[in-house]
Amino acid sequence: MPEPLRLQGISASAGYAEGPLFDLDQTVGSYVGKETADDEKAALEAAIGIATGRLTAMIGMAEGDAADILEFQIAMLQDDALSSPAFAAIRTGLPADTAWRQAGA
Question: Model's pTM, two decimal places?
Answer without folding.
Answer: 0.70
